Amino acid sequence: MRHPIFAVLCIAGATGVAGCEKLPFGKSSADETVERAFQGVNAVDGANLNDMMLQSADPDEAVRYFQRSVKQEPARLEFQRGLAKSLVRAGRVSEGAATWQEVTTHKDATDADRVQLADAQIRGGAWTEAQATLNAIPPTHETFERYRLEAMVADYNENWQKADSFYEIAVGLTTTPASVLNNWGFSKLTRGDHAAAERLFTDALRQDDTLFTAKNNLMLARAARGNYALPPIRMTQIERAELLHTLGLAAIKRGDVALGQGLLEDALESHPQHFEAAATALDALGGTAAR
After folding, report:
1. Would the pTM count as exceeding 0.70?
2. CA distance 46 to 115
3. Residue 291 lies in a domain
4. Of 49, 69, 161, 195, which residue has the fewest beta carbons closer than 10 angstroms?
5. d(Cα 181, Cα 105) in Å, to the nearest integer?
6. What digits encode the pLDDT tens for the residues 118-148?
7. Residue 217: which residues within 8 A CB-CB, separation 6 or more?
């Protein structure tokens, strides 16, 4: 089976030799060639190409592809969904949320679509709207994504009991809970429950030891309890320097200035290249570590 992108190139090449005749309404032959190419692919291998555009294509390229597809077949729900996902992935969150809103009005829209709308609303900071969207979803729709978002909204509203309940449910509904454990740990950290936060960050790293955000948050939880030692977790040399930098700044914030300065010096020495952030922090303290 030919690769879908190769099929696009073949179709475009075959139609491109047709010439440069003028088209009505100012449309160029190049535009029509691209449209015919995508029409052909959509007819032959559309589902595979849609998935590929969502998973591996450049986000802006994916947006353009789904915009063309929606223009050609505006009633196709999978194209509308693809456009909404691509817009969010490309950082065009407000447009993505608006497109998800349109998707949810489709006669074939599902509760999963409404969850995606709530996700886009949260990304855009529309917490009240996201809560209303989630409230409209029946409780029988029990998915990881739904409860992950419910937990975030409860966090935002400082409803800690609900947040903990939703986080616990979400963790039980996925085989890859590292990111939600990290979010739960950060929730505990903001509440001042540093011991619980440390446990959750450690659990997150047990699930995924490449998750740098959890490593950095773990440093904050340990430093908040006056523990400035690096824990026995896997880290690269650059990560080691960055984590020492986090510990150093946290120590200074707690008033342990001498300890913090020493940690910043260790960070500067540990980094395989010049560590500008650590050097700047030391300069501000009047540090004399070798540059």
Report:
1. yes
2. 25
3. yes
4. 161
5. 33
6. 999 999 999 999 999 999 999 999 999 999 9
7. 182, 185, 186, 189, 197, 201
